[in-house]
Each structure stands twice: as C-alpha cells, then as structure tokens.
Amino acid sequence: MKLENPKQEHHGKAMSVPGQMLSAGLAGCTADLFTYPLDTVKVWLQVHGSTSSVSNMAVSKSLLAKSLRKSTSSRLQTGTLSETARATMVTASTTRKVPPNIQTIRASSKFASDFLPTAQLQVKKPKKGHSGVASQSSVVRTIITGVRANGVASLYGGIAAGLQRQIAFSSVRFGIYDSVKDFYMDLFNVKHEGKNIPIRMLAGTTTALVAVGFFQPTEVVKIRMQAQARRPKIDRRYVSTYHAYKHLFQGGRKEAWRGLGANAARLGVVNVSELVTYDVVKEMIIDSNILDDNIYCHFTSAFISGFVTTLVASPFDVIKTRYMNSQQGKYAGVLDCTRKLLMKEGPRALYKGFVPAYLRLGSWNIVMFVSYEQYKRLWITHAEE
C-alpha cells in the first residue's frame, strides 16, 4: 500500500516506536548478513599492526608443522629417521609447546637435520614504509591468507555476536531517532519545517550514546571473535560466543565495557554522519523532485551517506578496534592507544583498512536503509490491516 504522504513515513509519525525499533533491528541484521565478510577483513587489517608478532608465530608454527610432517613421513618410509628424532616425535606428540620467536630453521642444525635435511624456512618481515592506507593488493593478500588458514567460514567468524550487536545497536540508534528528534524539537521550540541540522545531529548523538552505553559488551565480543577468526583454531582465545561473553564478564564491568569512550566517540560520529546525511540528502532529492520517495531515492541517499560516514569515522574506527582487541594492560587508555599508534605507524595508519571499510560501510548503508524503508512500509501495511 502506498502512503499518501511520503514525508510522514520519513519522519516516523505514522509508526509506533516498537515498530521502528523492530524494523531497524531487522534491517541491521539483513545488512550484516550481506556485508559481514568485508567487516571481518577490515578488522583483520586494522589489528594487523598490533598482532603481527602473533601472526608471524602462527605462520612459523604452521610452516614448521607442515615441513616436519612431510619430511618425517618420507624418512619413516625409507627407515632413515634417527633414534633421537623418533624420541623427539614421541615427546612432541604429548605437548604443543613451540620455541618462541621462530624466525629461521636451518638445515645446519644437527637436530633439524633429522627432519629438514635441506629446508630453510623464513618468515618474511613486512617492509618499512608501507604502513599507510591499505592497498588493493594488501586487502587481497589479507583475504587469501585468512581463507587459506581457516577456510571461507573465517570471513563469518563471530557472526552470532555481530547479529546480536545489530539487534541491540540498530534498534536503538535508528529505531528511536525520529522520536528523540521530535523530543528535541519540542524541547527547544523548533518548528518541524526546515532541515534543522543541529537538532538532527543532537538526536543522532543521543541515540548513539544510549546504544553504546547499554550494549557495549556486544561490540567488544564481536571484534574479538572477528579478530581471532584469522588465527589457527588452536591459537584462538574463545571457542564460542558464549565463551567470549563469559570470559569478558569475568573481568568485571570495566572489562565488559572496555573501550566505551572510543566506541562512543566513533559511534556518535558514525550515527550523525549516517542518519543526518541520509535524512538531508533524501529530503533534498524528494523536495527537488529529482526522485520520488522510492527505492532509487533510498539507494542514492544511502550511497552518499556511506561515503561521508567512512571518510569521517575511519580514524575513530581504527583506534576503537585496536584498543578493544588489545591485551589487558597494553594501553593505559584510548588516548594512550592513539598516541602509540601515531608514534609507531604514523597518521596514515588511522586510515588502515579504508578500502574494505568503504566497501563494507557503503554497501551496509545501502542494504540497511533500503531494507529499513521496506520493513517500515510492511509494518505500516500490516498495522493498517
């Protein structure tokens, strides 16, 4: 059923707050299902600088294990494996300890000669001067490395936590936005005509702070589950989303709401950029008679909103991801995390993962807002029947 007044739906006056919240939560989950792999790659790129030693260790272990299995199998078949090596294999089968900081395994070692007669394995260190904005090749390399290690399913690592986050965050920051905006307009005696951008910005900031204040733990768990998806299963900290939540709350309220300041700042910027840009662009398109209030208008508004949001929010996103994924005690706070990041990797590090971030946030905005508008119309149609 087509609404007689498209702007009435846009301002949310034809819908109840529960209807808007349900529609927003469903739209957020729909968008996440389509774009989650891009978000995972973005997290992998953003945490790369803080977990490179762990990644190198995992790669070293993997290379060592593969070479040992191949060489040992060959020598067992030929009967040339020494007694020392056989004894070592028995010991190794009962322990998973690997010498730390393995960089090179040389054939000149007497012990290694029983396993790796001619092999020399090296873990290449990243070249200096390439810590800025991720290039297309680095994005592809990151995807290939993660998928090779743990399969395509690793791109959806932590999807349960991601959907939990969307149900909580989207239903609040999008679902109550129109009501909060109308509240501020009445509070400050502002007329509903016009753009009223300051009021929109205030409403967007408010809903973001409410969402992050109540549901911050879902964000922390999502990021940690995504970050660990690239590692071998044996090196992962959590075996399930439930385990991640249990471990998180064992650290107390401070640990569960870790990175609250960084996420509040980031989500405030993202929410204002997304909602205000979408709101204003959509109204301009409709008022200028460029497009009607239809899916093409929603698509165009969401596309522009996604680009603006990515450009503004990327630095906050990088800092938030680094801080939330760090070991406890590594940073004294968000400012300390920012300072160390800038000192170690330079200002360009603030836009690490920009390409997948834009692909993800741009596509997420399109799916989110288009779905949101359709879910709202379905709700209104159902309510009127």
* Sheet with the most strands, sense and barrel status: 2 strands, antiparallel
Q: Number of DSSP helices?
A: 15
Q: What class do helices, strands and sheet pairing give? A: mainly alpha
Helical fraction equals: 55-70%
Proportion in β-strands = under 5%
What would you say this structure looks like, in words?
- The chain has 385 residues and is an all-alpha fold.
- It is built from 15 helices and two strands.
- The chain has helices at 6-10, 17-47, 52-78, 83-92, 110-113, 136-150, 159-173, 177-187, 197-228, 241-250, 252-256, 260-287, 295-325, 334-345, 354-384; strands at residues 104-105, 121-122.
- Strands 1-2 form a two-stranded antiparallel sheet.
- Helix 9 (197-228) packs across helix 10 (241-250) and helix 12 (260-287) packs antiparallel against helix 13.
- It starts with 5 loop residues before the first helix and ends with a helix.
- Residues 1-13, 51-64 and 92-134 have low confidence and may be disordered.
Write the layout of secondary structure elements.
Elements: H1 6-10, H2 17-47, H3 52-78, H4 83-92, E1 104-105, H5 110-113, E2 121-122, H6 136-150, H7 159-173, H8 177-187, H9 197-228, H10 241-250, H11 252-256, H12 260-287, H13 295-325, H14 334-345, H15 354-384
Antiparallel strand pairs: 1-2
Helix pairs in contact: 2-7, 2-15, 7-9, 8-9, 9-10, 9-12, 12-13, 13-14, 13-15
Notable characteristics:
disordered N terminus, two-stranded antiparallel sheet, 385 residues, single chain, 69% helix, 2 strands, mainly alpha, globular
